[in-house]
Specification:
By secondary structure, the chain is an all-alpha fold. Helix content is 76%, strand content 0%. The protein is built from 18 helices and no strands. α1 runs antiparallel to α7. The chain is elongated. The C terminus is likely disordered.
């Protein structure tokens, strides 16, 4: 309810009051550099930890046949857009429709263009427009506070639903895959706290307190977009990060930055290789880890979107594409940890972008 009006109003109010709009372009470049650095680190973790862990997994023939029998043709029923159509879609033909569909990146582009135009209107009009959108943003943050106060009730209800769907009958190869995948994602998330401490000089406890509400929303909804208002609230109210950075970096990160891909691509490939008796060499695993970095920016905003993007690379390393149907069926639990890592990664990148301001505002 609060995501679209909060993101759009914050972007417009922040950019429109900037005297030097080139600074926003530099901020975007720095953000992408930080995204790539973090993605590369997670991909390295997957490359180093995945193969030795999966060398411990032995799948008996009966279990492998049974799991392969659950493979579906779901991956063949989803048609991903071509690169050219994706580029064209970044400029929304109808921003109202983009907002209704939750198309974050096109909406961000529209808001940036609108704000740049507003910044070039006469000062009195610019101040009036900026004040209007600032008022909307502040009102949305108040609503976010109300929502977070009621969040524990919703979290409990959603947790019960997930538990009923997943059940307790997970064992054997599936249990191993879920444990390794979720565990490596959790380790990557913990390492982000180290990055924040030594990369930005921020106390871990302070960062953890600011992250907690957004992480609760992320786990309960499996949606980093749903956690965006809580992230903005934590970044501005708890961490005291500059609005001109948080209002741009967090929506931008939620739209294009999916930190889990480096681990997920390696682990899913190793698991499917085990099920089908296909050995993956280090060069093939390295290819998947390296490809996950640039391809993570093209993951579509659909459930298990990253699994559809990996499909062509499965064929490249000799894995059967129908194995993705198995991964989609097992994605409920790993997706909780994927979303948790992504949300923590969004906030980590924003803190790193704000490093100089943190050192001045919070020298402790």
């Amino acid at each position: 309810m609060t995501v679209i009006p909060l993101v759009v109003s914050l972007l417009i109010a922040t950019i429109a009051q900037e005297k030097d709009l080139s600074a926003m372009g530099k901020l975007g470049g720095r953000a992408v550099a930080i995204f790539v650095a973090l993605l590369s680190g997670v991909a390295l973790l997957g490359f180093l930890a995945g193969p030795p862990l999966f060398s411990l997994l032995d799948v008996d023939v009966a279990s492998a046949v049974s799991l392969r029998g659950t493979a579906s043709s779901a991956v063949n029923n989803v048609k991903l857009p071509s690169f050219s159509s994706w580029v064209v879609s970044l400029v929304p033909s109808n921003p109202i429709q983009a907002a209704a569909e939750g198309a974050m990146l096109p909406l961000i582009i529209f808001a940036v263009v609108f704000a740049a135009a507003l910044a070039r209107t006469p000062p009195d009009l610019r101040m009036t427009g900026t004040a209007f959108f600032r008022g909307i943003a502040d009102a949305m943050l108040v609503i976010v506070g109300w929502v977070l106060a009621l969040a524990p009730i919703g979290v409990f209800a959603l947790a019960v639903t997930i538990a009923m769907k997943v059940g307790v009958g997970v064992a054997g190869a599936v249990g191993f895959y879920l444990a390794v995948h979720s565990g490596l994602l959790a380790i990557a998330g913990l390492l982000l706290y180290v990055v924040v401490r030594f990369g930005a000089g921020m106390p871990v406890a302070r960062f953890a307190r600011a992250m907690l509400p957004a992480q609760v929303v992320a786990i309960s909804t499996r949606s980093s977009v749903a956690a965006l208002p809580a992230m903005i609230d934590g970044a501005e109210r708890s961490l005291k990060l500059p609005t001109q950075i948080t209002s741009f970096a967090l929506p931008f990160g939620v739209s294009v930055f999916r930190l889990n891909q480096g681990v997920s691509w390696v682990v899913t490939a190793l698991f499917i290789g085990k099920l089908y008796g296909i050995h993956l060499g280090l060069s093939q695993i390295a290819l998947l880890a390296a490809a996950s970095v640039p391809m993570s920016f093209s993951v579509p905003g659909i459930p298990s979107g990253g699994l559809f993007v990996i499909a062509p690379f499965f064929m490249t390393v000799g894995l059967p594409i129908e194995g993705i149907g198995i991964l989609i069926a097992l994605d409920v639990i790993p997706d909780l940890f994927k979303t948790l890592l992504n949300v923590t990664g969004h906030m980590t990148a924003t803190v790193l972008l704000s490093r100089n301001e943190i050192e001045v505002a919070a020298p402790s």
